[in-house]
Design a protein that fits this description.
The protein is an alpha+beta fold and 399 residues long. 27% of the residues lie in helices and 27% in strands. It contains eleven helices and 18 strands. Strands 2, 3, 4, 5, 6, 7, 8, 9, 10, 11, 12, 13 and 14 form a 13-stranded antiparallel beta sheet that branches. Strand 5 and strand 6 form a beta hairpin. Helix 3 crosses helix 6 (233-249). It is globular. The model is unreliable at 4-35 and 88-94 (pLDDT under 50).
C-alpha cells in the first residue's frame, strides 16, 4: 500500500520530483492522457470588481490510447491589490494577487458577484453538456469539464413519469431508478416519497438530503428548470444565497465543503437542475451526531432504503467504463488508522490481482489498479456500503 500523507504527489501518489520532471511546455503524460497549460494562458474574465477578479484558461486533453478528446476550463478568483503607478492616468493600477476569497461560503450570498461570474462562465463554455465543480477551499475556483466524445458515453437523465424535485408525493424509487422501478418493490417494502428527503423549503428553493444517502445536501430551484442557461438572474442569486445560509446555519465553513457540483445535459442523472453540496466524510459524520432525532430517523430511513435499491449490479458496472480501464477510485476514505488500511487492503485483494493501492490521506481518497477490467468491476459492485474502520467510502471507475 502506497500512502501519500501530504497529497502533493497527486492522485496516483507520484512523487513531486517525478511530476515536475514530466512537466514541459507541451504538458505531461499520465495514464495515457496528455494535457498542459502554460502560465501565460490565463485570461481575464471581465473587470475586477471591488478588488476581486477572475481569470480563466482552457485545457485540451487527449487520450493517447483511445483518441478521445476532452476539454477543461479553469476559472480562478484572485484578490487584486491597488498599487501606485505614476504612468497611469489615475495614478493607480490593479494587479492580481493571492487566491480569494477565503470565506467562500459568505461570498455565495453576494448575488451581484455570483450571478455575473456564472453568466461569464456559461458564455465561455458555450455547451449544454458539462460537469461544473465550484471549489470553495482553499480560495475560490470553478472547473468545467466537457467534450462531445465524453458526453456521448453518458446515459443522461433517468427517464421517469414524474420529477422527484417537483412532485413531493412521487415515489422516490421512480426518481432514482426511472419509470416502473417500483415494480421491484415487494408488498411489505418501504415506499418512500420525495417528501421523505426534504429538509427545508423557502421561496424559490428546496433543500434535500441526498436520495442515495450520500454525505451531501442537494439544492434545487422550486420551479422546474433543467439548465443554468434557463434560470433567471434572480433564481441563480436566490439559489446560491440559500446554499450559503443553510451551510452557515449548519456550522459549516468553506474548509468543510470540498465543492459544489452542477451537472448539465448528458452529465446529469436527474433532469431537474440541482446543486450537489458534498461534505467531507468525517465532517458529515460529526454533523450527523448533532442532528435532531427526527432528522437522524429521516437519514437512517434513506440509508436503509438506498442500500437495497442502489446497489450496483455487475453487468451495469462493466458497461460504465471502457474495457481498457482497470483503475478504481475510492472517495471519502477518511479513516487513516492501520486497522482501516489493513481492512481495505484485504478487501480489495479478495477480487483478484492488485497492481497498486495508493492512499492519499490528505484528500481522503484512494486509487486501486487491478490486473483486469473485470476484477475492477467486481470490486466496485462488491464494495457497496462496505465499512472500513469508521468510514464507508464510495467506489467507482477512475479515468
Amino acid at each position: 500500500v502506497c500512502i501519500v500523507g501530504s497529497g502533493e504527489g497527486g492522485g496516483s501518489g507520484m512523487p513531486v520530483e517525478e511530476k515536475r520532471r514530466r512537466m514541459g511546455s507541451k504538458g505531461w503524460k499520465k495514464m495515457g492522457w496528455k494535457w498542459g497549460v502554460a502560465d501565460d494562458a490565463w485570461k481575464d474574465l471581465g473587470d475586477p470588481a471591488e478588488g476581486l477578479g477572475w481569470q480563466w484558461c482552457q485545457v485540451r486533453k487527449e487520450n493517447l490510447a483511445e483518441e478521445v478528446v476532452e476539454s477543461e476550463m479553469r476559472f480562478r478568483a484572485l484578490r487584486y491589490s491597488t498599487d501606485a503607478n505614476p504612468e497611469s492616468a489615475a495614478g493607480m493600477v490593479l494587479t492580481p494577487g493571492s487566491p480569494a476569497p477565503v470565506d467562500s461560503v459568505s461570498w455565495l450570498m453576494e448575488s451581484t458577484s455570483v450571478v455575473p461570474v456564472l453568466r461569464a462562465v456559461l458564455r465561455e463554455i458555450q455547451v449544454e453538456d458539462f460537469h461544473l465543480r465550484m471549489s470553495l477551499y482553499p480560495g475560490l475556483a470553478i472547473t468545467v469539464y466537457f467534450g462531445k466524445a465524453r458526453a456521448q458515453e453518458l446515459p443522461g437523465p433517468v427517464v421517469s413519469d414524474t420529477c422527484m424535485s417537483c412532485d413531493l408525493d412521487g415515489l422516490l424509487l421512480d426518481g432514482v431508478r426511472g419509470a416502473n422501478a417500483t415494480a421491484q418493490l415487494r408488498e411489505n417494502d418501504l415506499r418512500l416519497t420525495s417528501r421523505d428527503t426534504l429538509l427545508k423549503e423557502v421561496t424559490g428553493v428546496r433543500v434535500w438530503l441526498d436520495a442515495k444517502a450520500r454525505n451531501m445536501f442537494i439544492f434545487t430551484p422550486t420551479r422546474h428548470v433543467e439548465s443554468l442557461f434557463a434560470m433567471t438572474d434572480n433564481e441563480i442569486g436566490d439559489l446560491f444565497a440559500e446554499i450559503s445560509r443553510f451551510l452557515q446555519a449548519e456550522g459549516l465553513d468553506s474548509s468543510s465543503v470540498p465543492a459544489l457540483i452542477i451537472n448539465s445535459g448528458q452529465y446529469r442523472n436527474h433532469a431537474h437542475l440541482h446543486v450537489k453540496c458534498r461534505i467531507a466524510g468525517s465532517t458529515f459524520q460529526e454533523l450527523r451526531r448533532q442532528w435532531s432525532d427526527s432528522r437522524q430517523t429521516q437519514f437512517q430511513q434513506l440509508w436503509d432504503y438506498s442500500y437495497a435499491f442502489t446497489k450496483p449490479q455487475l453487468d451495469d458496472v462493466l458497461q460504465k467504463a471502457a474495457p481498457s480501464i482497470t483503475k478504481v477510485f475510492v472517495a471519502d476514505f477518511y479513516d487513516s488508522s492501520p486497522e482501516a488500511l489493513a481492512s481495505l487492503r484485504e478487501h480489495v485483494m479478495s477480487f483478484g490481482q492488485v497492481k497498486s493501492l495508493d492512499v492519499v490521506q490528505a484528500k481522503n481518497i484512494a486509487f486501486i489498479d487491478f490486473e483486469t477490467h473485470e476484477m475492477a468491476a467486481q470490486c466496485i459492485a462488491g464494495s457497496h456500503r462496505k465499512t472500513f474502520g469508521t468510514c464507508t467510502p464510495y467506489f467507482w471507475w477512475s479515468r
